[in-house]
Structures
1.
Amino acid sequence: LANVLFRDIATETHRRMWLWSAFRIAADCGRGHTVAFVETDFAFYRRLYRRRAYWLPTWVQTELDADRLPELARRSGNIEKDVRRIQRSGFRPVISSNPRDLEDFFQEMYLPYARARFGAHRVCATLGEVQQAVGERWELLQMMQGGVVVAGQLFAYRDGQVVWWMLGVRGGSLDLVKNGVLAAVYHFGIPYLQGQGYRFQQLGGVRPFLSDGVFQFKRKFGAMVTRAHFDSPRWFAAFFGHPARALHGFLAKNPFIVEDEHGLCGAALGENQRSANAASATEQLRSEFTAIRIARSIDINLDAPVASPWCSLLPDLQAGGSK
């Protein structure tokens, strides 16, 4: 949720304890706050999902249909702008399967870009873990500029599908990003894979907020949601307390994806909760959910908040006795 809700995070380390004790500590920090997000794993999701909370998967998986790209390019001025930036910057693609290129990509592009984009708290895989995960069937799309590899995208081939696995920019350079190097990766990568016979391409995970920058970028190329991300079986339980003006403003501009017993659905501030100058109308939001293959949507009602969201969890946790 960095850059969506918080400027930075604070970390506290506590001794080994029962889970309900951990929630008591959270309760001391959470009382009186407008909104509380509790990150939890599958065991808690399964036990507590019927509580009056909104359950957000930490990541959702996306894919694109390459056959739709020409139509999107005709309708989107943003894609035309990307093409002009790519031409001005002189980016050109090279495909590699050389293990040395993969090591250079991981050390000099993926790690610096991940830390520049997501902060020092980002937990990154090791090179060995990446090599084990992708196996022997992988390719690296290298983006060249003036004879230098400045960015890369790792493709992994598995079970008849292709997955956009990892993206990196040399040195984590944000100047290269501003000059369109990420757009160049998609501009060259999508048709390359389509030519290899992959019409549907797995674009990897995004955060479940429609306003998230990575989500917006992928949606430009027709990204649609398929499911909660298979590599991250964790959820955020969102509790909304006092209906302050800031909370109304946040929810009006940040619709998100939740999961319930029927699957994924959209969640946005209800029409009767919106002010006259809200950023987007309810119908427009529903159409946005439909565009990313989210067929259902629910309204968030702040008139009936959970009075003590943290303490309401404690009876179930104590009964479970999990550690």
2.
Amino acid sequence: KENRAVRFETRASSGDALIDGSGTYSLETETIEARLVLANLSLGGLLSTVTGMEGLAGWLSGELEAQGTLESPGLRASLTVQDGAVRENEMEPFHLNLTSDGAEIDLRLDLGDERLARGRVLLEAPFPLQAEIDLSKVPFTTIVQGLTDLEPELAMEGKLDLNMALSRPENLRYRAFIEEYRAVLPQMVQRASDFTIEGDLRALSIRDFSAVAEDRSLSLAGVIPLESEGSFDFDVAGDLDLSVLAPLLQDAELDGRASVQMKIGGTLSKPELTGTVEVDANSGRWSVVEWEEIVVRVRSERGRLFIDTATMRALGGRVSLQG
């Protein structure tokens, strides 16, 4: 204690990594002045125990300053992640800037030299957060390739709005309006425009999704539950070239087409399908099984499956199923 003030300091280092903080708290004015410096902290080490974050890498550096009363301090922070990667898929640097006047916090997140997101938090219970993300700046390709074994190229134009109370994160709500979507998938390029995805942690809804790829199409609409007892009300319609499924099946060669008209009801734990699936496959192979032709016509009605036609020509013979 000096002149009725408390001074505090902390410092830790390991190799190039550094945490250095200091500050003063005045007992007379009940105000604080503090500064914290971070340098070259391993992002992978910091997030190693967080489920789903094991593949993240990068180096975190930044600075935080606080000044004012404990109840309403002014804040300024700048954090940067350099050499970021998701499972060795490199990303541009992230920059997070935060400022506060004691009543609210303004946030800005940049990817490289462009703004990725901005937001605001009111510093009064329940601490509502509003944020807007520019989907055209999100590195979807890097994220998907880093978190899965798939290798599509994905890009979107549009925005994602987030609303939640930090004291009640379970009440998160989101709404994305996608002006343009483009996916380069095996054997095709898929496009869609002007559709909406919105919801909360209990269910999401998709409206007006209609994707085309050459002479193929896919339409999605309705509600998808995210809780086991939540209810489906979802429609799927479209057709596709079977060759796009080959990368999902180990050692497969597929040629032909499939079409689907399906309504999904029931719950996530017990869905009910009503509709039809038709498959017309030419010669193909999956592992050691080869065929010359497959024709399938299947109907589903509230959990009951009806095989109108199922034939396969293989190994010089023909197999048929019905019932």
